[in-house]
Structures are given as structure tokens and as C-alpha cells.
Amino acid sequence: MAATIGVIGLGKLGLPVAVTLAMRGHKVLGYDKNPDRMSVSALSPHERGIDGSTALADAADASLPLRFAPLKDLLVEVDCVFVLVETPHQPAYEGTTPLPESRADFSYDALTSVLVDIARHAPRPMEIGVMSTVLPGTVRARVLPLVGGHDIVYCPQFVAMGTVAADLCAPEFTLMGCEGTPAPTVESVLRGLGGAAPVLVMDYESAELAKMVYNTYISAKVTIANTVQRMAHEVGADAAAVYQVIAAADRRILGPAYVGPGMGDGGPCHPRDNIALSWLARGVGDGSDLFTAVMRSRQAYVEWLGDLFVDLAGGRPLVLLGTAFKPGTDIEAGSSSVLMATQLRLAGRQVRVVPGPADLGPLEAEPAAYFIGNPEKEFVDHDFPPGSVVVDPWHRVADRPDVAVHRVGEGPRQVARR
Ligand SMILES: NC(=O)c1ccc[n+]([C@@H]2O[C@H](COP(=O)([O-])OP(=O)(O)OC[C@H]3O[C@@H](n4cnc5c(N)ncnc54)[C@H](O)[C@@H]3O)[C@@H](O)[C@H]2O)c1
């Protein structure tokens, strides 16, 4: 259903969004604090239309239901607003200069200032869709306190410059972060744009993290491709042939496999191959050594899980269930669970290790702290003594009476919904 929509912040993203919403039949009012942006003539000539080929500016003629108005007037008329102001990083963090040692959050000055203005001038409770990119935790910490009484949806867009209109109208998915259910007009506008695309509704923090991780996943893919190219050059391989292999691996590499909760990567091939390639990369002078970084991150993750296990155990005896690198095997080579046992022992902890289901033995009578190193069915369904703690990085152990089950990384709001 057509809505009256305010688009606030008409920059590189906001102006094409405003034009696209109008092309999809909504009545759109645009506002930017910079008057130069309050005109379709400010559209980049590089932005293409919904068809992905003709210029978006060509479609933005006078018949389009798009007007520009001061913020106060806009707020009187609209059913909802989308906010697309900048959330910039300092120039040192843009990636055009050598990486500094320091790190910083984005600047939220423009976002907080515009939300204060909206809250001040809105004549009634507003539905506000925030499309600006923010770090996880920002909406709850910085946005909600400014807009009490207004309904916030965090709805970042996954679009590329040049194809904003086409990407908006054919998204991979529609993502909305909210408390409870999304504000109805914002939801209906976004669902209308997305057509048959899956609609993913979640808490603010998960949506914020998903937006950031989407981009960094792409960075990781590009960086692996770059590393292949550099190594191919150095060792006399053909980078294009290597890419051909990876691009054909649509089950394990390009599909959703491995994107889920669990232990660190493991097995007789993966850690060993990373470590061997890091040696080769050092030999050919790859100063960044991506493979060492991958191994260090894996090790740090397993160490963090071990620390969490000890914390949550609260002094109970530690029992590690499963040392094979995956279910259905007894192979321990490269196992992250074995790495955890090693790390705990090196840290002076006593830990009882139960390698496989056959080693479970009789039930313990006293409460203990269990870590699911390998999610074999017998471990997941184990009858843990009352008063025990179970730490499950795989999200396989169900809640049960008198046992504290911690599925690592399961959000507090997800826990509350159970
Ligand atoms: N450009 C992209 O490809 C892209 C893609 C996805 C997400 N994003 C995110 O969208 C947001 C906007 O990005 P952009 O590239 O369009 O930024 P931009 O700097 O091009 O545009 C921001 C606009 O907001 C306006 N603005 C600032 N404060 C305002 C206020 N108080 N009231 C009204 N207008 C105000 C500015 O004048 C500017 O025109 C950022 O958070 C960015 O990370 C951008």
C-alpha cells in the first residue's frame, strides 16, 4: 500500500532511496540540512535506475510523487520517516592511509542530532526507520534514549553505489531490527520493496552486527582472493585457475555451510594447511600473512571459550565432552576441543576429558561443569546431574530443569523468548 514517507539525509544513499520509493508509488518528502541536496539534480549521474542500466536521474521527472520540504513540515505529513544521515569515520580509518594502531567508533553526531530534531518537532509518535550504518549496541545506547515514545526500526540497506535503486527493489533479504515487532508502516514499505525476498526480523544488536559482518565478510573474501593472486604471482601458479576452483565450490565455500555456531575450525587438514601456507607466505614475502591471522583468531576464540567455561563453572569440576574434531569420527587431529584441553591444562586447570560417547561411563552423582567440545548426540542428550552447568558453543543442548545451560552467543532476548 502506498504510504507518505519522509526521507531525511539526501546524500549518496538517501537521495537515490527517496527517488526509488517515489518510483515505487509512495508519496515521498525529502529533507537534508544541506539545501543543495534537496533536488533531484543532485543525483549522481552514475546512479542507475531500477532496471540497473538507464540513469536514475532520467526517471526522476516532475511526475514523480517526490517533494522537498523543511523537517517540521515533513513531519506533519508523513506516515513514517527513514533516516540516512552520515555516520562517518575519521579519515585515518577510511582505509586510504596506512592502518594506524588506534581504533575508534563511527561518529554519531549527525544521527543523534537529527533524531533529537525529529523527536522535538514530531507532532505525534513517529515510526522511524534508521538506515544509517551503526556499530552493534548503538541503537539501544544512543538512539532509544533520544526518541522515547517513537518507534525505532533499524533497517540498514545492502546496496552498492551505482545500483541503489536496483538493489533496493531486488534485495537478497529484508532486515529489520526492532523491539518486539517492527513498526507497521516501515515494515510494509520495506516488505513491498523486497517482494519475495526473505524477511529477517531480529533484535537491534543482531541486525546491527549482521550489517557490519555482511561488509566484513566481503572484505575477507576479497582479501583471500588478493592473497591467492599475490601467492600465484610469487609461486608461478595461475590465479584465474585457482579462482575457477573456488568459484565452483558452491557447497562448502560459497554456500551456507560452516556459517553457524560451534567450536574453532579443526580437522586433520584445515589448521595444518593454514599453518603450512603461512610458512609459504612468509617465504614469498607476504608481510600480512593472512593464514597466521586466521590461526591466531581460531586460537583466541578457543581460549576465550575456555575462559568462559571456567567463569561459568563457578568452581564446579570441569568436564570436557568430546575431543574428535567433528561428530561421527574419533579423529582428534587438528581438533579445537583438544586445543582447549591443552590450553586449560597449560593455565593450570584440572579438566576431566571424555573423548567420545563410549567413554562417558556411569553418571556423575555430583554437579559438574560440562563443555560440549563435540556435539555427539550422547553428549547433547546427557542426563547432567542437578546443579550442573553446561556450556554449549553448538546451540544443541536443550534447556532442562535444575541445570544451567549456556548456549554461547545466544542473545539475551533470544533466551527470554524461549
Ligand atoms: N553510500 C553507501 O553505499 C551506503 C550503503 C549502505 C549504507 N550506507 C550508510 O548510509 C548512511 C549515509 O551514507 P551516505 O553515503 O549517503 O552519506 P552522505 O554523507 O553522502 O550523506 C549524508 C547526508 O545526510 C545529511 N545530513 C546530515 N545531518 C543532517 C541533519 N541533521 N538533517 C538532515 N540531513 C542531514 C548530509 O547533509 C548529507 O547530505 C551512512 O551511515 C552510511 O554508512 C551508505
Q: Could you please describe the fold and organization of this structure?
A:
The protein is an alpha/beta fold and 418 residues long. The protein folds into 2 domains: 4-202, Rossmann fold; 296-417, NAD(P)-binding Rossmann-like Domain (Rossmann fold), CATH 3.40.50.720. The protein is built from 14 helices and 13 strands. The protein has helices at residues 14-23, 56-59, 71-77, 109-121, 138-143, 164-169, 184-194, 204-235, 239-248, 270-283, 290-313, 336-346, 377-380, 412-417; strands spanning 4-8, 27-31, 66-68, 80-83, 127-130, 151-154, 174-177, 199-202, 318-321, 351-354, 369-372, 389-392, 404-407. The strands form 3 sheets. Strands 3-2-1-4-5-6 form a 6-stranded parallel beta sheet, sandwiched between helices. Strands 10-9-11-12-13 form a 5-stranded parallel beta sheet, with helices on one face. Strands 7-8 form a two-stranded parallel sheet. Helix 8 (204-235) runs antiparallel to helix 9 (239-248) and helix 11 packs across helix 12. The chain binds nicotinamide-adenine-dinucleotide. Residues 8-14, 31-34, 37, 84-87, 110, 113-114, 131-133, 157, 159, 161 line the site of nicotinamide-adenine-dinucleotide.
Provide key terms for this protein:
Rossmann fold; 14 helices; 418 residues; globular; binds nicotinamide-adenine-dinucleotide; six-stranded parallel β-sheet; single chain; 13 strands; 13% strand; five-stranded parallel β-sheet
